[in-house]
Amino acid sequence: xxxxxxxxxxxxxxxxxxxxxxxxxxxxxxxxxxxxxxxxxxxxxxxxxxxxxxxxxxxxxxxxxxxxxxxxxxxxxxxxxxxxxxxxxxxxxxxxxxxxxxxxxxxxxxxx
Amino acid sequence: xxxxxxxxxxxxxxxxxxxxxxxxxxxxxxxxxxxxxxxxxxxxxxxxxxxxxxxxxxxxxxxxxxxxxxxxxxxxxxxxxxxxxxxxxxxxxxxxxxxxxxxxxxxxxxxxxxxxxxxxxxxxxxxxxxxxxxxxxxxxxxxxxxxxxxxxxxxxxxxxxxxxxxxxxxxxxxxxxxxxxxxxxxxxxxxxxxxxxxxxxxxxxxxxxxxxxxxxxxxxxxxxxxxxxxxxxxxxxxxxxxxxxxxxxxxxxx
Lengths: 112, 254
What we know:
The complex is a heterodimer of chains A (112) and B (254). Chain A is an all-alpha fold and 112 residues long. Chain A has helices at residues 25-47, 52-73, 81-105, 107-111.
């Protein structure tokens, strides 16, 4: 690694980009949003009858919660687009795979 | 020093090698990639769970899959009351709260405030331990009611459905043997595998948090000049929270 460690040059392996604080305001806002959605989950569970639409709402809320956790708590909003794509694109594909396999899982009903 | 390094860093062409095109350190990038692979692991468990559940569906909603509201309806110190979803919501709240204290520790690390980092990390560890305790309690109740890896006695008969359907939140209930029948076999096994795998992640997360807290308290990161290790532990901890969001959705809500 001496190639990258000439005096005056940066150290590619050990280089840590400087981190800055974005304050705690957004973090607490995210906490209240997550708590609010969880309470909403709880209310909808008892108020709405068990339908496919209710399941859709719960999954949608799950994705909203995931957005806030990854975006604010895991700092993804402030990362470079390069990193976000590396992490999020495969995740979107795997979600597609999960949905596809669940849909096909219906066929197991008839295989019995 | 830091500014000088950053200036040298910024001058490098982005994709020509020798620098990270992601503007994160090597360790943080590897933590992200580990979390990605872990997301795949949990997705595969979710596929298995979903396929088993979908294979027991007669119509989109009518299913002989056991209703979680009829099983996970206990709350500590409130024996014999029908309280579905309440305990697991409390667990979710504990995990969200410990996520917030974790991210506050990361934020304090950016300001290089050692005292605050250690304080918030201790709160996070307490939250994680509380979550594990809740899960142990839930498992012990579930096993006490007869859950095994090899069978499922949680199917509800018509008599049970009638009694159970009339129960309101907080009503007294008493399970009778004639309410229950055999259900789809992998129900309890999948519950144990998925929540157990998640619980093991929480357990490892608590251990990682204890280690980095001790390191922070002993001034290791102060001497190092940055608190990036807290950030890496935080990424892992938030991922555990993220997985719980989906376990909560698919095992308890749906």
